[in-house]
Specification:
Helix content of chain A: over 70%
Number of strands of chain A: 0
Mean pLDDT of chain A: 86
Strand content of chain A: under 5%
Structural class of chain A: mainly alpha
Distance between the termini of chain B: 59 Å
Radius of gyration of chain B: 21 Å
Helix content of chain B: over 70%
Oligomer: heterodimer
Low-confidence stretches of chain A: none
Order of helices and strands of chain B: HHHHHHEEHHHHH
Strand content of chain B: under 5%
Strand order of the largest sheet of chain B: 1-2
Amino acid sequence: MIVLRIALLLLLPLAWGLGVEYLFERRRRARRTAKATDTSQ
Amino acid sequence: MIGGLDGVSYLEGPALAGALLGLGLGLGALTGLFGVGGGFLIVPVLNVVFGMDYTIAKGSSLACMLGTSASGAMRHLRLGNVAVKTMLIIAGGAMSGALLGGMVNDYLEQAVCGGDQVRVELIMHPMYIVLLVVAGWFVLRGPDDVITHDAPLQRLPLGPRIRILRTGQEGVSLPGLVYMGVLIGLLTGLLGVGGGVLMMPLLLSGVGMNPKQAVGTSLGIVLFASAAGTVKYGLIDQVNLAVAMSILISSTIGVQFGAWLCAKLRARSIRRYFAILVLAVIVMIANDLVHKIRDYTTVSQPPTPAHPAQ
């Protein structure tokens, strides 16, 4: 049980980090696309 | 959480409140002067000078760090000094590490020491001495020059890699950032320190951030890590709000004095004064450790018979 808890505490932050990176990257791409659309119009 | 000041120290009532306010003033002055949170100084001082149990000292110190880092992080966020994405990634690791550190602390206190505070101190004192030596070395070494080559976390062969938006760095190892946070969080949970004094040099030299970004980002990470640590210690009733608030309130006044003093002194002498202070606390802990070892070995030895058997 304790090993499972430690493994979870070591893996969760990695998943969190990937999630944060994904969200920020998606937002950055959306902004870039919006900017490109604005300049082309 | 514990509300009052009764029974946490050998000092009582107004004497304890006054001493805590004085400690807070001193701590605030340190923050203003050296730019460190001071958790690595306050926990051993609360234990050795005030006679508080290590667990209560750690829990209360973390609650205090929560207040100081929150105000600092908000200020730096407004100034644009926080690399938010990087801070959130490392903070996830730091929160996890703080919970792990709390678990290690529980194990040491209950399973290894059986709740005996003297044995806890015999284990914790050397850890604080090592922490103080490392922290003193980092501060004495001073800020690094701006890194022109790749930072260690950019060279680390462990993907996936990310881009730090605010500093424009490419190819920084994500697991490297996360487990750097876990490492600092472990110290937060185990020793009740914010970890900013170690996080700053890691962000500067390990990640390659500039000093302003490193200060703001480090404060954000300390905020999350100390929040996790405070919850962990709060759940086992080891956060004394009266102690934390006394130190926190007076430290806000002390910060002003420290900042004023900082403007008067040269950077080199500030670092020298910090080294003297760290050395004084190391001597204080080492002295207490020697006394505790002597007392412990005297008590645990069986009494010698007055008249040995013929």
